[in-house]
Amino acid sequence: MPTLSMTVNGKPVSGEAEGRTLLVQFLRETLRLTGTHVGCDTSQCGACLVHIDGKAVKSCTTLALACAGASITTIEGLARDGKLHPMQEAFRENHGLQCGFCTPGMIMSAIDMVNRKGTDLDEQTIRHELEGNICRCTGYHNIVKSIAAGAAAMGKEGLRQAAE
Amino acid sequence: MYAFDYIKATSLDQAAKLLSEKEEAKLLAGGHTLLPTMKQRLAAPGVLVDLSGVSDLRGIAREGDAVVIGAMTPHGEVATSAVVRAAIPSLAELASVIGDPAVRHRGTIGGSVANNDPAADYPAACLALGATIVTNKRSVAADDFFTGLFETALEDGEIVAKVSFPIPDKMGYAKFRNPASRYALVGVCVAQKGSTARVAVTGAGSNGVFRWKEAEAAFATFDPASLEKLTMSPAGINGDIHADAEYRAHLIGVMARRATAKALGKRL
Ligand SMILES: Cc1cc2nc3c(=O)[nH]c(=O)nc-3n(C[C@H](O)[C@H](O)[C@H](O)COP(=O)(O)OP(=O)(O)OC[C@H]3O[C@@H](n4cnc5c(N)ncnc54)[C@H](O)[C@@H]3O)c2cc1C
Ligand code: FES
Ligand code: FES
Q: So what's the architecture of A86-157 in CATH?
């Protein structure tokens, strides 16, 4: 089996992977990073979203070997120094989850949304951009609220970091 | 998925060579059609030749009167490209309604035209704009390229390198989405250049994307009113649990008028 090296959450990692090994299998089964979920395995639900070189991608529809040398961020890589990422904190504050199964994908999607659309997100934009993420529990209202709040918090955090 | 060997090509020539040498080899672009198909075991290539490392297949450029898009350019890049937005804004809009944001980060124009899904968006733009599909061997006019359901003029081992879209005077695309799959239930692309207009329909034809020549001929002036008296026959139109053939045929007329209105910067 070929050996695969990449950067995951800022750390260099390597492991064995077959041609058919999916990125999500490599993350969950080889690296034991089980925060990334598999909801549908048919590219529909977004529970498996991770960032590859800064962009949200469905890791159930990406081959692990295709990611050799790439930089991957998963839900486990968001918190800093024991403090939740502002988007994670916003989901907690706004009750943006019930069972939590879709949440890692929702949060990775939300941060990608901020990266592309900025920190001032209205409800319509958020709902439109969330088309690739399915939640079976919440009815989405609090997810939309969480993302708006998390985006605004990321804006403030960015300003603070720039000032420091 | 059945096991296969994975090879990342570094040049178009190398990819072509691998395709011709290896038995049961298939190209991998964004994988957003091929990998789901392989998971269902509807395809079982022995070797996947990944094009993602071939850097000259990716990129967007204005070349004279055309916008040229490399085969490995993902939909999201087309949607946000300043070049496309300036020259053919409606093409950028079409790319922005393919699937969802994550699909658009990965899925490519080359994969989309090569796959020729009967409900895909790009084939409609290719036909309406009179695009040229450039492969590693030749150039093929869109009219000759899309030959049927999931069928194209591509020969064994032929690789799409880029798609060249002549810049129209006006273009509009109206898509009636299937909300679950996000593909087109019916999508109509209308383009006008000088005294000619072309109308292409996706999502509806039982033989895949097609030009609606009656509509093209009906444009006395390029406006939605010119299409009002036209009706599309349900013969040859797809029916399924989402929409029967009569409904789809009706939608084609509605979407054609909406696309024309959009091309004129109006809403219908
Ligand atoms: C959830 C979801 C929603 C989607 N919604 C839409 C939608 O609304 N509209 C739409 O149009 N599409 C939609 N798609 C399909 C998406 O756009 C695909 O990305 C696209 O159809 C195929 O492109 P790809 O790069 O993923 O190709 P792949 O899956 O990698 O390849 C597809 C086929 O083309 C061949 N191929 C790839 N590149 C080349 C090349 N350069 N030359 C020759 N052959 C090649 C491959 O061998 C394979 O047979 C959706 C997909 C998903 C998963
Ligand atoms: S598990 Fe990947 S999209 Fe559902
Ligand atoms: S919180 Fe249960 S699926 Fe979204």
A: Orthogonal Bundle (1.10)
